[in-house]
Design a protein that fits this description.
- With 988 residues, this protein is α/β, with parallel strands linked by helices.
- It has 32 helices and 35 strands.
- The protein is globular and about 85 Å long.
Length: 988
């Protein structure tokens, strides 16, 4: 129960929540206490000296106070008022005020707004330029020391929110400024361009380059005109006073507002599910502005979510339907294209049967799109041949969770991961693939002492930060996980009470662990026995453990078993069903969770009803107004098997929505062969993708910001995304294309808005019974399962497990080695994965020049020891040859990889790594074993520049600090607390 209190503020009694920051408490009462450095996410910095109040006759910084019963605060005393005005004057002395020609005069400038609210009559301290130039080295944002007020917000965000630890302020220097890696240019530092610093800057010292000259009527003027205007205004300030000048800037700010549109949207890159406001002026995206209310990310972003939106207005966008005639595409009308698609799909169905067609929904599109793809497949065509890209990455994790705990999703939320005593990360490069979640873990470790265990063959950032780093042989995770489970039983670390109450098959499972000794684990994994013991003791003795895993586990020939072993370990130690616990398979694409949740699976309806379940099939038939006999009860083919069936001429037609199958599926040769043998192929996408090149009809879809819809992030969190821009050209939202197509195939469902599609699904699927657009309004979200009254489920399994008897099941396993391993000829193992800067096949992220500035080309990582053995230098080109084909890339020499293991980012080249990968796969779910690719290496007689440029953040040297060292500022001989005046306030 939240306690309340009554405080007295300027003689008025105010009642509200106790223990709340005073600034937030007053804000809820409609009172604005002047402040600049305080930010609700960053907390108390005490650098700006603008929030002084009087408590019991003593001056206190208002940002340091919390609401408490009986607190008496006075702001109107002469002492408090003078202190605040002195503090603001000191800030203004560091800042060249030119608001009317400033891009940041848009209502979002804390400094400007506070100055106007305080009615500062004139700038007491004359502004003097600082001995520094603007830092324009970053392709994404600019730092202007002449505008910097040294509030330290950016430093706090970098050090303790993002925990990249790049930014600092040296208050001991003669002219303090914000520093990157102690004084490097931004683009030569360890800055990862996440944009946190820009988001929290209270003025225009840090500003997005996309804002430059784009915001107001005067901002587009060249500096040759701006500078004289600024000088004139400065003279006016010292003659007629600042009030008329600030009044002019207020008029300018209000004139800008109607032209600036602020729309809440959801990021469509990774599975974290960040939401934020997108600021636009006409079709120009001014900036992405995260807000504290965003449920998954708060103010956090990454380089892609903050800056990589150029693709929206790319000249490469599809804007008209395309039909292939005589081997070449021509533009067509929507009527012609949709009529052709409808006719040909029905012809194939009628001639060859429903199962001769295959449908692939998008893991980047909306839930409503996914729902309609599977509805067309099942209701119109009559096949369960429907899938999405989770087959390539997450189905093994889902299988492991289905086997053990019952739901195929994260057990809790990002907040649970933050509050865990121990976090275990397995096969996940979290800092690059899910940077916002990684930031939460880094902050919990740095600020609250959370223990971090990382298990990965590759030494990435989270491995470097780990308290325990285990580097096993690739593909052996089931062995060490099972050995740790046995250790728990053998050393009385198993949670017996939990097991007795909530888990089936305990004794059978324990017997199955007999082979998994520490000796076996040491021999198979290469991990030292003591390291295994240390990890087991840390996990077993912790009160709460969260375990995260990703494609380093799932993309193996036995990824389902390895995922199951990890969930088994959590059950043995009682780490399900309470805050700060559970299994968290990190979802890769923004809606790979939602695409599966809403039915794009070969054997599951929306909400995971099985197609062979007669009761569920009857419910779906009733919901769709058909006889159950019209819905197939036979599980269909997943996308991996569809492509193989196409190559065998069993699948005759395919409809692919927003998936780069030609780039993402294993063994590219067979994929292309299968596509070329199809009688008819439709691709619905934003770009003419590699996959679309093989299509007979290409339908131009809209990106997320040009349509409404909902998405499900890795937490199972359903969020609503609003339309930011009108569709470009004649492109159309996915849901509208699919609705129109169904109508042409004789099924006029009549949807006028995606909310109606969600309402239909919620009416039929029990898991989504209480989901509605009204309940998802604004920043609200719901985590499935959602009861009919709207009650959602942030934490699963608190009252039992999602199995018939309410209990979890320990699942016995056997160790099976990888299907493909190095031998004498193919003597190296090729690991692969994503990078922070790019996304998948670069169709979206690759439209941003700034992204290519960071990583201009592909490369292969080679260990120092292998490089020395083979005579490889930085920039040496090498040829990698698997049992299927060859690719050429320049080498990066790094200890991120070890020995005879290589690493190749998946994003580069027209065909990329999948020229090399094979079709061996997990027999339980048919996920290709991308991580099991044996290769040989040939050193080519070709040298080039280092593939990773010297300014890439991986070469930076961060400067870890506790945060903003304001005490150093206070210790300066020339600092005196307000209301005393300063001789050189701009230096502090």
């Amino acid at each position: 129960m939240t306690s309340t209190c009554t405080i007295t503020f300027d003689g008025e009694r105010l009642r509200g929540r106790a223990g709340e920051p005073l600034i937030e408490f007053l804000k809820k009462q409609g009172v604005d206490l002047p402040h600049v450095c305080y930010h609700p996410t960053l907390g108390v910095l005490e650098t700006c000296d603008a929030c002084w109040v009087e408590v019991d006759g003593e001056l206190k910084r208002g940002c340091t106070l919390k609401s408490d019963d009986g607190l008496k605060v006075e702001t109107r005393s002469e002492q408090a008022r003078a202190a605040r005005e002195e503090g603001m004057d000191r800030l203004l002395s560091k800042h060249e005020l030119y608001c009317t020609v400033c891009e940041n005069n848009n209502g979002d400038c804390t400094l400007h707004n506070t100055m106007v609210d305080m009615q500062i009559p004139i700038q007491r301290y004359e502004f003097q330029r600082k001995p520094y130039e603007k830092d324009t080295s970053s392709p994404f944002y600019t730092y202007d020391p002449d505008q910097c007020i040294l509030c330290g917000r950016c430093v706090e965000a970098c050090q303790n929110v993002e925990v990249n630890e790049t930014l600092s302020i040296d208050f001991t220097s003669e002219h303090p400024r914000v520093l990157w890696d102690g004084g490097k240019p931004i683009n030569d530092s360890s800055c990862v361009h996440c944009g946190h610093c820009v988001t929290v800057c209270p003025c225009n010292a840090l500003m997005e380059n996309s804002m430059d000259g784009q915001v107001g009527p005067f901002t587009a003027m060249p500096w040759s005109l701006k500078r004289p205007m600024i000088e004139i205004i400065k003279k006016l300030e010292t003659t007629v006073g600042a009030t008329p000048v600030s009044g002019l800037s207020e008029i300018d700010m209000n004139l800008r507002q109607p032209e600036i549109k602020r729309t809440k949207t959801v990021c469509t890159y990774c599975g974290v599910g960040c939401s934020f406001e997108m600021w636009t002026r006409n079709r120009h995206i001014l900036k992405v502005q995260p807000v504290p209310e965003a449920p998954a990310n708060g103010i956090s972003t990454c380089i892609k979510g903050k800056f990589a939106w150029d693709f929206v207005n790319s000249e490469k966008r599809l804007t008209m339907p395309l039909i292939r005639d005589n081997g070449r595409f021509r533009e067509a009308s929507w009527d012609e294209a949709l009529d052709l698609v409808a006719r040909r799909l029905l012809e194939v169905r009628d001639r060859h049967g429903p199962d001769s067609l295959g449908f692939i929904g998008s893991s980047k599109g909306t839930n409503e799109q996914a729902y309609l793809v599977q509805k067309i497949a099942r209701r119109v065509i009559g096949t369960n041949n429907v899938d999405n890209s989770s087959r390539y990455c997450q189905n093994p994790a889902t299988k492991g969770l289905f086997r053990t705990v019952g739901y195929g999703g994260d057990a809790g939320t990002i907040k649970d991961i933050e509050r865990a005593e121990v976090v275990v990360i397995v096969g996940s490069n979290t800092a690059e693939n899910h940077p916002v979640i990684a930031a939460r873990i880094k902050a919990a470790q740095k600020l609250r002492g959370q223990k971090l265990i990382v298990v990965d063959p590759r030494k990435h950032e989270m491995a470097e930060r780990a308290d325990i780093f285990l580097r096993p042989k690739s593909g052996t995770d089931l062995v060490w996980a099972s050995a740790l489970s046995r250790y728990m039983f053998d050393h009385d670390l198993a949670d017996r009470d939990f097991l007795d109450r909530w888990v089936n098959g305990v004794e059978e499972y324990r017997r199955s662990l007999e082979p998994f000794t520490l000796e076996l684990a040491e021999a198979e994994t290469g991990l030292p026995r003591q390291a295994l013991v240390d990890a087991a003791e840390t996990i077993g003795r912790a009160k709460t453990v969260c375990l995260l895993w990703a494609m380093g586990i799932t993309q193996h020939s036995h990824g389902s078993d390895a995922s199951t072993a990890l969930s088994n370990l959590l059950l043995v130690t009682g780490n399900y069903g309470k805050p700060g616990t559970g299994g968290y398979p990190m979802r890769g694409h923004n809606n790979v969770q939602g695409a599966s949740d809403f039915g794009c699976l070969r054997d599951r309806y929306p909400g995971y009803d099985h197609v062979a379940d007669e009761k569920a099939r009857k419910r779906w038939a009733q919901g769709w107004g058909v006889s159950p006999d019209e819905l197939s009860d036979k599980p269909g083919l997943g996308n991996f098997l569809m492509v193989q069936a196409a190559d065998d001429r069993e699948i005759k037609a395919m409809y692919i929505v927003g998936e780069e199958t030609a780039f993402s599926d294993a063994n590219t040769h067979n994929v292309i062969s299968g596509f070329e043998k199809l009688d008819f192929m439709v691709v619905q996408d934003v770009f003419l993708s590699r996959t679309a090149e093989y299509a007979d009809v290409v339908l131009p879809a809209c990106p997320s910001v040009e349509q409404e819809g909902t998405y499900v992030n890795t937490e199972r969190r359903i969020q609503r995304s609003y339309q930011v821009l009108e569709p470009l050209g004649d492109s159309r939202p996915d849901w509208r294309i699919l609705t129109d197509l169904a109508s042409r195939m004789g099924h006029d469902w009549g949807y006028g808005h995606p909310a109606e599609i969600m309402a239909e699904c919620a009416r039929i699927a029990p898991m989504f019974a209480g989901v509605s657009y009204d309940r998802l309004e604004g920043w609200s979200s719901q985590l499935w399962p959602v009861a009919a009254d709207g009650t959602d489920s942030p934490l699963l399994y608190a009252d039992g497990f999602a199995n018939e008897d309410g209990k979890a099941n320990l699942h016995p396993l056997e160790w099976q080695p990888p299907e493909e391993a190095p031998d004498e000829e193919y003597d190296l193992l090729l690991d692969n994965g994503r990078m922070r800067e790019q996304f998948q096949g670069t169709n979206q992220s690759g439209q941003s020049e700034g992204i290519w500035d960071q990583v201009p080309r592909g490369f292969v990582e080679v260990s120092p020891e292998l490089a020395a053995e083979r005579g490889i230098e930085e920039g040496t080109w090498v040829r990698l040859t698997s049992r299927r084909d060859s690719v050429d890339f320049p080498a990066v020499i790094t200890d991120r990889v070890r020995g005879k293991t290589l690493f190749l980012p998946i994003h580069f080249g027209k065909t990329g790594v999948n020229l090399l990968t094979g079709e061996h796969n997990d027999p339980d779910v048919q996920t290709p074993a991308y991580k099991e690719t044996a290769v040989k290496l040939e050193v080519l007689d070709k040298r080039g520049d280092p593939p990773l440029p010297a300014h890439n953040y991986r070469y930076g040297r961060p400067t870890p600090m506790s945060g903003v060292e304001v005490e150093v500022k206070w210790a300066r001989s020339d600092y005196a607390p307000p209301p005393a005046q300063q001789s050189n306030p701009r230096k502090m």
